[in-house]
Amino acid sequence: xxxxxxxxxxxxxxxxxxxxxxxxxxxxxxxxxxxxxxxxxxxxxxxxxxxxxxxxxxxxxxxxxxxxxxxxxxxxxxxxxxxxxxxxxxxxxxxxxxxxxxxxxxxxxxxxxxxxxxxxxxxxxxxx
Length: 128
Known about the structure:
The longest helix is centred in the C-terminal third of the chain and has 26 residues, at 102-127. The chain has one domain. With 128 residues, it is an alpha+beta fold. The chain has 2 helices and 6 strands. Helix content is 30%, strand content 32%. It comes from Shewanella denitrificans (strain OS217 / ATCC BAA-1090 / DSM 15013). This is Cytoplasmic protein.
């Protein structure tokens, strides 16, 4: 049995303000943490409130929450040397982000996640 050795939780929020005259964008509001507690909390909530399938992108099924402009996805991936990664994505869109594309946001987040997996795999190889 493989243990979960890496946890990544992505949260994207649409900004409601502008900082230093820089245009407000979701790119400035991406949070990444490695809390197992947050991942388990999200999985439990999403299992009970699964929403409806919105789209698929690179083996990720992205669902839209019922009753709010929120999208979510999760996945697990095997790493080299018996490691395992768990990732969750949560995207909040509202009237401030009407021009933001959930597909574009997910594409950006997946690319970052894949980079982190490559880094984790290379670090595991060094440790062995």
